[in-house]
């Protein structure tokens, strides 16, 4: 079975001195997601939480929105020609009566650890309708509370400490308490793992949460937040123009460049407590 990290020999050069030593690398392997036995998508991911990743992906695609809509999630045996299991193929079986999206199955999406979803025919196809209208969510969030969240996320990144090569996503309560954190070579996978775990625990929609991501806020990450009912998305780096557009359309609060006490609020500032601050 794949591992989250691997040890490899490297030649290290420091100030002209050369030495050989083992180094810890972030694991990256393909995961094929099947829906009712048919191939749906392939993503490059860090092994671990594969069932959550698969179900979280289905939430973002609008296929499921509740735990009871998923009958089973299993690794597919005999993934190799010799019959051995790679643990890199997951089959999600929907509960009876849950419709299978034929258009999605025809797509056979390929996702990578860098770009997220690729190959969708048009922007309209990406704007999947969510079953969770964004409510008020956490209100009165102060800039002071947001300022401490990146450090709390960083402190919880156990695999990053060993590899330096993983993105992370975390859910926080309105009081700033860490609810869950996931790491992956793909920032979109880290969010899917969070959402999938929440789905399996019956916690969707994630109405009273703040989603923090360690990189930039792409359109896809904004969409995943909306699809899971998350009202507040913060990123330590920049958002894209489409992410801002989607946030404005759906009522999502979007904060970017969250670095210490500095940040930009791109949409949904009504959820922040800016009392006393000039706007």
UniProtKB/TrEMBL annotation:
Keywords from the named record: Cytoplasm, Molybdenum cofactor biosynthesis
Stored Pfam families: FdhD-NarQ
Location in the cell: Cytoplasm
Active-site residues from the entry: 115 (cysteine persulfide intermediate)
Signal peptide (residue range): none
Major subcellular site: cytoplasm
Record flagged with keyword Mitochondrion: no
Record function comment: Required for formate dehydrogenase (FDH) activity. Acts as a sulfur carrier protein that transfers sulfur from IscS to the molybdenum cofactor prior to its insertion into FDH.
Family: Belongs to the FdhD family.
Name this protein carries in UniProt: Sulfur carrier protein FdhD
Species assigned in the record: Streptomyces lichenis
Lineage, broadest ranks: Bacteria, Bacillati, Actinomycetota, Actinomycetes, Kitasatosporales
């Amino acid at each position: 079975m794949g591992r989250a990290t691997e040890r490899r020999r490297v030649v290290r050069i420091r100030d002209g001195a050369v030495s050989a030593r083992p180094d810890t690398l972030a694991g990256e392997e393909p995961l094929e997601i099947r829906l009712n036995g048919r191939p749906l998508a392939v993503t490059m991911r860090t092994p671990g939480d594969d069932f959550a990743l698969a179900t979280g992906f289905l939430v973002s695609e609008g296929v499921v929105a509740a735990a009871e809509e998923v009958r089973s999630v299993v690794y597919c045996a005999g993934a190799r020609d010799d019959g051995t299991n790679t643990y890199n193929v997951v089959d999600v079986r929907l509960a009876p009566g849950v419709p299978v999206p034929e258009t999605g199955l025809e797509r056979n999406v390929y996702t990578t650890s860098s770009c997220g979803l690729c190959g969708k025919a048009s922007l309209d196809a990406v704007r999947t309708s969510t079953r969770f209208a964004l409510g008020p969510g956490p209100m009165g969030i102060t800039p002071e509370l947001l300022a401490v969240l990146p450090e709390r996320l960083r402190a919880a990144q156990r695999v990053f400490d060993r590899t330096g090569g993983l993105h992370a996503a975390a859910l926080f309560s309105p009081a700033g308490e860490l609810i869950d954190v996931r790491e992956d070579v793909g920032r979109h996978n880290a969010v899917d793992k969070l959402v999938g775990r929440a789905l399996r625990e019956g916690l969707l929609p994630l109405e009273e949460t703040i989603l923090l991501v360690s990189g930039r806020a792409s359109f896809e990450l904004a969409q995943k937040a909306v699809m899971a009912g998350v009202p507040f998305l913060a990123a330590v780096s920049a958002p894209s123009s489409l992410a801002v557009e989607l946030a404005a359309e759906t009522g999502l609060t979007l904060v970017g460049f969250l670095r210490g006490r500095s940040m930009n609020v791109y949409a949904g500032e009504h959820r922040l407590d800016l009392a006393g601050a000039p706007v």
